[in-house]
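Look over this record before class:
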Amino acid sequence: MIVIAKGSISRPDALAPHLDDEMRVMRDLKAEGLIKSAYRRAAGPGFYFLLEGPSIDAVREHIDANLPFVIENLATLEYDEIYEI
């Protein structure tokens, strides 16, 4: 299952103390194959993930339980299941 997630940053001023942990967890999730690619918005705070997992619920649960920005309520994600055309 391929999932795209749009991330919104709610408190950009509070990210710095969590940045190293966020990057470490993202590297781990990329190594696991859950995060296929990650992109930062060019204009303003925010990001996009291309994710892969057994279901959208499994992907959502794994990301939301592991990313420090989400755990600390500094970012929220909207998930959409997608498929190639």
Observations:
- The CA atoms of residues 10 and 74 lie 5 Å apart.
- Residues 2-82 form a domain with the Alpha-Beta Plaits fold (CATH 3.30.70.1060).
- The longest helix spans residues 19-32.
- The helical segments are 19-32, 56-66, 68-71.
